[in-house]
Amino acid sequence: MTQFIPFNSIDTAYLETKLEQELASTRETIQKLEKESISSWDMIISPLQQRLYLLNQVWGIVGHLQGVKDSPELRSLHEKYLPVLTELYVNLGQNKQLYKHIQKIKDTEFGALNPEQQKVIDNELRDFRLSGITLPEDKQQLFKQIQNQLSELSTKFEHNVLDSTDSYAKYVTKDDLAGVPEDSLALYQALAAQDGKDGYKISLHMPSYLPVMQFASNRKLREELYQAYSTRASELSNEGKFDNSNLIREILRLRQQKAELLDFANYAELSLYNKMAETPKQVLDFLYSLADKSRPYAENDWQQLQQFARDTDGIEKLEAWDVAYYSEKLQLHKYSYSSNELKQYFQLPRVFDGLFALIHQLYNIEFRPNQNIPVWHPDVTTYDVVLNGAITGHIYFDLYAREGKQPGAWMNSAQDRSVTASETRLPIAYIICNFTKPVGEKPSLLTFDDVQTLFHEMGHGLHHLLTVINNSSISGINGVEWDAVELPSQFMEYFAWDYSILAKLTAHIDSGQVLPRELFDKVLASRYYQSGMQTLRQLEFAIFDLLLHSNFDYAKGNYLELLDKLRREIAVVIPPAYNRFPNSFAHIFAGGYAAGYYSYKWAEVLACDVFSVFDGINGDELSKLGDKFRTLILSQGGIRPMMENFKAMMGREPQIDALLKYSGMN
Ligand SMILES: [Zn+2]
To answer: Is 457 a catalytic residue?
Structure first.
């Protein structure tokens, strides 16, 4: 029986007690292992992994709750223990006794271990090297200090973005919101009511911000919101209280220093060391060549948009806050449907049923509601994941936006699969989104983007849940290369573009009608709408990230100038000078994507390529292919390099053709 996290009863005091207990046991275990005279898997790795598994699980709850239900108490708990945990891991990474034990296991017992154990030993030795074990004493101290500082600065960066986002509120009248659809108006009204006010409240959270940018004919309002959004966490907002500018410089300085300590020329080289891609140059070549191919398409997109705004409203200079608005209008004009019209077909419960049916056909997986699993908020739903009649894992869905919840969508592990001689722990996944919460009796309506997001996160969830690897450090998505980890998620997204699948998950909110083929054909025709501009935007972020970490002088250089220069080279939309996008670029300054943002495009190559085999396949053939994908890719965890999984599935190396085809650029 799975022991579930008692979300309905835990508070910060409980978490603190648990953390203290696990920390004490972990320290005790480490001390005992240091003195252990026998170097073997059973005497060293097994007890160490067991302790760290339990410690990580409690720490994971803290991080999870901060993402979905932040509070001052949780934040101070996190701030108190983050340095403690960081220090423990840094010390562990520089623990010479343990390193000697593991090196000795490699030299003596290795041949007798099973493949999972061998992979774990090799990973451990690699990680030891990367955590500075071979450094002389004084440099080890410095290394430790850098790790601690980086970890604190990242947390601070993230808090600044959230606080700056949360601090904004604009109260407007219905007249100010001309053009905005009814369901968004209801949301703004509900937000104002929560503050005990009449009228309409707009916040900078995506479900609130986006409808104004897409639909409000009030140009001044769009400009004001755009400015607020694009200056979050900078010296230009909140009187600089949440400014991330200095944090960015400091983070870059420390990362470079860390890379040099480990004998890498720069942080990008260090970052790529355990990724699928090999060198910064290889990645930059890949990105720039894609930029070259997409540039003509992007220029064409931009010209059409400018022309359209001029013809429609006499706009002489198209500004950044006009892009979403006229893009929406031009899309409507060209393809005569609006994303809002389309949205009426995507009722959340129906979409869910359709997604579950697809997953069942592909992988023979069922989701069975299990209301006995405790949750942290009444909106959360929970399921058992059943394969061939046996429960193989569990999943939580927390889908609606609310105050105190981080924006965006993500999948995370509540528990990793771990099977040892003494116990079996099944994988448990969190799927977190920020969809618009239903207002009144009507179910939540998703945009088509939301639907793709849900498919995407389910792809990650399945990667986590369908693993057959028993060792937790390489089960699920653990130990998978960063630049390959988006393969299963992006692969799932492509299914949202298949009409036979979409038909099953749509029903018009009023008429109950399935998404008409005619409307779908328009959606399909618009699939490549502005794909040049969108691709270039992604490439702009990816190249900026890689340049910052490989070819940028943090001491003398100005990162805004670097971005500006890059935009002039490759972008077609140049934002106003006050735009401070890097200040809220949490992916690379607070998340794990530093010198790794390119991973999205990299994995897209793999995902498109695999999907091209599934495209147009139905029935038993589809189930057979799904089974192959589950066996050769989804279930493999980090036991072998993704390139090997890929080749086992496809019988060849990845090719870029499918990416160009599915981006409409062939
Ligand atoms: Zn993803």
So the answer is: yes
